[in-house]
Amino acid sequence: MRTRSLAPLAALTVASCMASKSDIALLQTDLQTIRSESARGDSARRAQLEQVLALVIRTNDSIRTVSARLAQLQADVKNDHYEMNRQILTIQELSGQSQRRLQELRGAMEERVQPAPAPAGPTAPADSVRANAAPGPGQLFQSSLDQLRRGSVGVARSGFEELLRTYPTYEDAPEAMVYIAETYAAERNQAAADSVYGLVVQRYPRSPKAATALYKRALVLKSAGQNAAARASLERIVREYPRSDEAALAREQLRTLGR
Q1: Which one of 103, 151, 164, 178 has the fewest beta carbons within 10 angstroms of its own beta carbon?
Q2: Would you place residue 8 in the very low, low, confident or very high pLDDT band (cuts 50, 70, 90)?
């Protein structure tokens, strides 16, 4: 009787054990599925990371290539600017030599054709004698320039000033005034040099020497630390004399000046 009463309980226990094993098997199956999906997801993410890494490497390679090309381009541009400025200076030097040669020839010609002074007498006024003996503009210019080259800046300035007083319409008057400014600059008289350079531009705005005066004035101002005033002179050259040799030099100087 007692044995019959325990039979249902045993059956229930066996069924519970069977249910637990089934659940465990199902759970293991689900866990395996999750692991498989996780592994596939990790593989996909790893593939994506590898693609991103490859893209970053290619981008870095491209950036390095572009940087190298840019550096080479900058070097080429710098070399081109240097070569251009060197050629400009060479042309200016050759032009200056030719011009000085012409001035020497003019002075020599004036000296040859100049009439001998008439002897002073009761019929020859002294002023007329001095006028006949006065040197021509070419002679004055050349002799003053020779004094400047020897370092006699005061004597050279006096000669150029006499040239401007005696022959104010002389074709090389703008250059004579530039040399006057240079004599002041050689004496470190910045204010006087700056004033005379400005006077060249004011009196002879259409002369090529106006651009020269502005450029030399800018260099004087720059050496004195007056960068704003130097920049203004350089910008004026580029704006008003864009085709002059000094315009190319001014553009190069502007790159070296801070705002």
Answers
A1: 151
A2: low
Which SS3 state, helix, strand or coil, does residue 106 take? helix
| Whether 247 contacts 215, CB under 8 Å | no
pLDDT at 21 exceeding the cut of 50: yes
- For residues 107 and 141, the answer to whether their CB atoms sit within 8 Å is yes
State pLDDT tens for residues 84-133: 555 655 555 555 555 555 555 555 555 554 444 444 444 444 444 444 45
Q: Where are the domains of the chain?
A: 75-109+136-256
**Owner of token pair 């659940």:** 23
Total residues belonging to the chain: 259
The H or E element spanning position 105 is helix 2-113
- When computed from its CA atoms, the radius of gyration of the chain, rounded to whole angstroms, is 46
Q: What is the DSSP string of 29-74?
A: HHHHHHHHHHHHHHHHHHHHHHHHHHHHHHHHHHHHHHHHHHHHHH
Please, which pLDDT band fits residue 50 given cuts at 50, 70 and 90?
confident
Rounded to 5 degrees, φ, ψ at 175 are: -70, -35
Q: Which CATH number fits domain 75-109+136-256: 1.25.40.10, 1.50.10.140, 3.30.360.10, 3.40.50.1440?
A: 1.25.40.10
Q: Are 180 and 192 in contact (CB under 8 A)?
A: no
SS3 call for 223: helix
Q: State the Cα–Cα distance between residues 233 and 224, nearest whole angstrom.
A: 14
| Predicted TM-score (pTM) of this structure | 0.52
